[in-house]
Amino acid sequence: MTAQAETVAELRHRYRRDLAPGVERFFEPRRVTCPWCSSDRLRERLRTTDLIQHKPGTFVVEECRACGHRFQNPRLTPEGLDFYYRDFYDGLGARTADLIFRSPGSEARHRAVARSVAPFTDPRRWLDVGTGHGHFPKVAKEVFPRTAFDGLDLGEGVETAAREGRIEEAHRGSFTELADGMAGHYDVVSMHHYLEHTPDPRRQLTAARTALRPGGLLLVEVPNPESAYATLLGRWWLPWFQPQHLHLIPSRNLRGAVCELGFTVVTTERGAAHQPVDLAAAVALRMFDLMPRGDAPWHPGPPTALARSLRTAVLAAALPAVAAAYGLDRLVAPVARRAGLSNAYRLVARRD
């Protein structure tokens, strides 16, 4: 038995204990009004499963007909979030997550995000919220070598980032609870694909305003739920990212919220924030959904020899298809950035 298999076997006992009462306990009661505008004009937009880890459970995304906000409903409880995040960015998933965040593509995107504020500020102190292991600040330091970058996150990765020199100061905990202690301290607060993971995005924006000095900049990048790809690809559109994405916020809603808090929107970019992976990710998710499950502790037991062979065969068949889809993503990217297909948008706002 390999070391990985031994770890999975050890963890399986805990997962069995967690799953024995069923996954229904991981969800709050379904709400009947929109968490953004309080309208009761809701419709089901998506019903899906965990397409990445394949943990058990069904997740529903609803859309508000009044304001266009999309949100997970019923929403996961804190206990549920802990269960579904476990072994994704840390534990069993740490190595894969690290490879993704350290990839040349990820670093190029981080560099572009940092450069998006260069026309508006030369910051002295910068707080990256949801920093994880500090990969964004490490790259952003290349763009702003004189800036002191701090990081905030719930997980232990933020402390690792400080020890390894990717950030100067680590803040571990909830931003909404820690913000008062850093009031007026920062020239820039960034939230790079963080806001959609939070139970209450408005409170996060309020915390950002608290942490910023007057004239400081808020930098937010989030998925674009109005992308045509969301409709074209259905449940295979990666930015739905269930069960982790709790809110998908249309740009007009986010702009309105920051203005209500006393910000002035400096710029909103769609094309520049687009990541050309939609078709490749959709093909990969579909193929992974078809193949036999791998050895993960939330599955009842390890796969049989036949299942392992079938999984290897499907994976071999999938790779050329994913590569071809990625080539098409790159080919159509210039059009996608201008034709309503952009899968993300970026907002920069100045605190008044």
UniProtKB/TrEMBL annotation:
Gene Ontology BP annotations: methylation
MF-aspect GO terms: methyltransferase activity
Ribonucleoprotein found in the keyword field: no
Keywords: Methyltransferase, Transferase
InterPro entries assigned to the protein according to its UniProt record, in alphabetical order: SAM-dependent_MTases_sf
SUPFAM superfamilies for the chain: S-adenosyl-L-methionine-dependent methyltransferases
Name of this chain's protein: Methyltransferase type 12
